[in-house]
Each structure stands twice: as C-alpha cells, then as structure tokens.
Amino acid sequence: MKTIDDLLQEGVSGKRVFVRADLNVPLSGDTITDDGRIRAAVPTITKLAAAGAKVIVASHLGRPKGAPDPQFSLAPVAKRLGELLASSVRGEVAFATDTVGESARAAVAALADGDVVLLENLRFNPGETSKDDGERGAFADQLASLADLYVGDGFGAVHRKHASVYDLPARLPHAAGDLIATEVGVLKKLTEEVARPYAVVLGGAKVSDKLGVIDHLLSKADRILIGGGMAYTFLKAQGHEVGSSLLQEDQIPAVIEYLERAKAKGVEFVLPLDVVAADGFPDLKNPVATHPTVVPADAIPADLIGLDIGPESRKLFASKLADAATVFWNGPMGVFEHPDFAEGTRAVAQALIDSPAFTVVGGGDSAAAVRILGFDENAFGHISTGGGASLEYLEGKTLPGLAALED
Ligand code: ADP
Ligand code: MG
Questions:
Q1: Which ligand 1 atom is nearest residue 367's CA?
Q2: Which of 105, 206, 261, 371 is catalytic?
Q3: Does the C-beta of 365 come closer than 6 Å to ligand 1?
C-alpha cells in the first residue's frame, strides 16, 4: 500500500487531492456529541495542506436515503473541522452544499494551494451506496473529475463497497492516509504479529453481531472473556438459567460449538461469575436509580434481567488481563449508559489501562463508553475509529476499501 509520505515525495503541491475521510460523528440536533472521528482525520488533511495540495475532503454521515436530507448535513462537521484546522491550514475550511454539483465544482475551482474544502454528505447521492456497479461507477467518475489524486483515510467505511471507498481509488492514483495506515498496523498486531498471551474481551448487545469474530479469534487468542448482553447466551448454552436477560436462543448451537472447539484448542473461555441484575430494563433517557442486586451468574432469578457483570466477575476479568501481552476489547460489559450498570465496563477499561499489554479498544459504543466514563484516551494502546471495519478485518474478510488501495 502506498502511503501518504510516498505521495508527498512525488509532490502534491498544486494537485487536487480527494481525501475520503470518515467524519460520521454522533449528532444531537446539530451538536456533535463526540468529535473523535473528526480529530482522527486531522493529521492527514494537515499534512497534505502543508505540502501545498488543494484538499477535497469527503465523507458520509448517517444513513440518508440517496437524496439530500438536512438532518444528515455535514455542515456542523465543516464548522468543527474548521476549528480543528484553524491553526494549521492557511484559509478557512470551505463547505460545498453538494458532492458533484455546481457548489462542489465551484468550491474546488476556487481552492488555492494549501486550501481545504469539505463536500456535503456523499450518501445524498444514490450512486454512493448502490449495489449496481454501473451506477456506483458513474458516481465515481463524477467524483474523479474533481481531483488528481486519491487518499483513502476513512477507516470506519473501508468494509463498504461504496463508490467513494471502492470505485474511486480505481480511477485515480491513490494512497492510504495516516489513519488507515495506523489502524491497519494495529490490526496486524492483533492477527499476524501477536504478542502472547493474547486476551480478547467481548461484550455488547448481541452474540449474532460477534459470532464471526469469535469464530476467527478462536484460532488466534489464548483467552476469550465474554461479558455484556451476549454473556447470557453463553451461560444458557452451559445449562444455566438466565432469567429475563437478553438471550439469543437460536445462537445456542453455535455457542456450544465454540465452547467445544475452544476446549479442544486449549483456548480459555471466561464467563461472568456474578451479574448485576434489575427487574426491568432501565430508562436511559431519564436514568433514575434502579435498586439493582448482585446474583450468581448460574442462578439468575426468573424475574430479573442481567445488566452488568458483577464485582467477582470484574476481579476475575481484571486478573485475566493483568498478565496479557495483547488485549483486544470490543463491546461494553453492561448497559453502561445507566450509571447503575457502568461499573463492569469501567473495571475492564481500568484493567486495560493497568495491564502492560498492547491494548486496543474497538467498536463505536465501546470507544464512546471509554470517553463518557472519563478515561484518558491516550492511556490505551489504540482506540479504533472503525467498529464494523475492525471486526470484519478480525473475521478475516477482505475489506473493499483496503483492497482498492493495495493495487
Ligand atoms: P460496540 O459498538 O462497541 O461494538 P455493541 O454495539 O455491540 O458495542 O453493544 C453496545 C450496547 O450493548 C450498549 O448500548 C449496551 O447498553 C448494550 N449492552 C451491554 N450489556 C447489555 C446487557 N446485559 N443487556 C442488554 N444490553 C446490553
Ligand atoms: Mg454499537
């Protein structure tokens, strides 16, 4: 994969460089609630602008249906990007109100060397996400006409076969940006160049979302710790009652097969010993106290829902991470959005920080949890900007947006 430094060596001054970033941040109205992805995009943009490129930044935001939709406008992102770039780029960050129309063409034509423009949401155009190669290709042709070079830096979108991710790099000389290079380097340390013992902590809501990862990591990891909502399907598969906890009954056969395979391979599966349970799912919009109780994981009363891992489990999980050399964590240990059920997630985050291991946090909610609970992002080895993308990489899949940058 060509890097951005290779491009810089060839010279980018005066060239129009299309940067496919992932600026898909959570919004509440037009307030950005977590600007992590915008901050992660800054280094590549700054490098190109400093080298005299005319930088055209593009991204998707949310899931609009192939037509302009004001609630998914990148306008608030343009403003934030402008603030973050204020000290490092020459002019203000321009904003085009379309992607390949009049506004975009005029904004690109107006760029001086070192200037930056952000285009409007790529998904306002049906060609971006189309399953039809011709339709996607036609949109990619239009995007290609705006630029001379392509830099892929939207790690969170590389698992998508979309026009700006997959088809556009085939039409322009291309390279990987610094964020993608970093993310891929980290993923290699989780798959090819692993320091052992290698512990994987999985949580979150659904087992079905993470089956592919478990399947693949069974042949890589030394220990797999399971918390969150998915733990109850594992407990049930071991013959325990899980009360009214989240349960994916149809996944039990798969889970039983994983437990058996793990035993045969000598991979240690670690399940919660106790859980924090309540008699209903908490109201997350109005988080009042819930009077939770701690119950053994193998005897959850029928009328209770397990919503977090308990204190004994937290100690057990921390001990399994303390002597690891590599830790990958994806998925909160409980319903961390409510303070009564955030302690398991907090304990695992702290255990990662305390461990000498190379630690990686993947997954949108996990990364958000770490920040919301007030941890210092720099205390972790790496916090990935791509949930789905990193999981698919760890499943061993070929990611279209990475493959497109390779040739
Ligand atoms: P990520 O985005 O990090 O991959 P997921 O999307 O898989 O994580 O899961 C995050 C969600 O899982 C959170 O919203 C959290 O409330 C939920 N969750 C965690 N534990 C439980 C549980 N015991 N029961 C129900 N939901 C849970
Ligand atoms: Mg999620």
A1: 3
A2: 206
A3: yes
Cα–Cα distance measured from residue 30 to residue 119, given in angstroms and rounded to the nearest whole number: 17
Assess contact for 72 and 125: CB atoms under 8 A.
no
Integer angstrom CA distances of residue 264 from 67, 236, 335:
52, 21, 33
Ramachandran region, residue 8 (left: φ > 0; alpha: ψ -120 to 50; beta: rest): alpha
Count of alpha carbons within 13 angstroms of residue 243, beta-carbon side: 23
Q: Ligand 1: does its nearest atom lie under 6 Å from the Cβ of 331?
A: yes
Interval 226-256: pLDDT, tens: 999 999 999 999 999 999 999 999 999 999 9
* R_g of the chain, CA atoms, integer Å: 23
pLDDT, tens digit (0-9, with 9 covering 90-100), for 187-214: 999 999 899 999 999 999 989 889 999 9
Q: Is the CB of 169 inside a 6 Å radius of any atom of ligand 1? A: no
Cα–ligand 2 centroid distance for 365 (angstroms): 5
Q: Specify which residues 328 forms β-bridges with.
A: 200, 360
Residue 210 appears among annotated catalytic residues: no
- Give the integer Cα–Cα distance in Å for 116 and 93: 5
What residue has token string 């080298």?
51
Q: Looking at the DSSP assignment, which residues form a beta bridge with residue 54?
A: 16
- Count the residues in the chain: 407
What is the value of pTM for the model shown?
0.89
